[in-house]
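Quick note —
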Amino acid sequence: MSVPTIVVHRDADVLAKAVAARIITRLVDAQSATGSASLVLTGGTVGIATLAAIAATPARDAVDWPRLDIWWGDERFLPSGDPERNETGARRALLDHVDVDPERVHVMLGPDSGLTAEEAADAYAGELRKAARPEDHGPAPSFDVMLLGMGPDAHVASLFPGMPALYDTRPVVAVHGSPKPPPTRISLTLPVIQASREVWVVAAGEEKSGAVRLALSDSGPFQVPAAGARGRGRTLFLLDRAAAGKIPPGMGRIASP
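Predicted structure written out below.
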């Protein structure tokens, strides 16, 4: 796994715009190299603000949207269209405004599909298997970019401290009893996260500062899930000043004066 690079921006608004610019550049580079690209989305305030920033910039037209695969790191097990679903937020912020191929937007199903959370997790694992190539050496694609938010408890995706999903080696799991509502969710697991080419952890706000410090320490991922959020080739912690407030001086690169 790669060693994290830390980049600190002035505030949450600048952070979202800077991450949006990074995503566009990375996707264009990947498409230039291989003809397509893959992006794993996250929810949360900064995650959705980042997608809205992509939609708002003319630079978005540099991305060949029909040749992009969109995935999610986790999803709340709620019906399609529910405003609390990460998918709903992503569609409103970005996906409804660009020419994505519907067949390449890989949605985690909700209860309105008629599936249980376990069955929906298995169905998503099946989609991952179909998309994986021999060079990925696993049951899921090696994503070009995986975006992850982080909670004040250092959870990423729907992998919460001390919960069984952190020990699971399947690519996708149902999560029950989430400490953050709703209680039932679907999540990618650490092995899939760590197989991604690049993992970007995006966090803003003083309430995240303790979790950021722990995630960048020698903590184990079972008590500090974000400590296991590492990409195969590159890991970025993209923070605002408030979220970076408790990391050692000089550890991060200040990008926004």
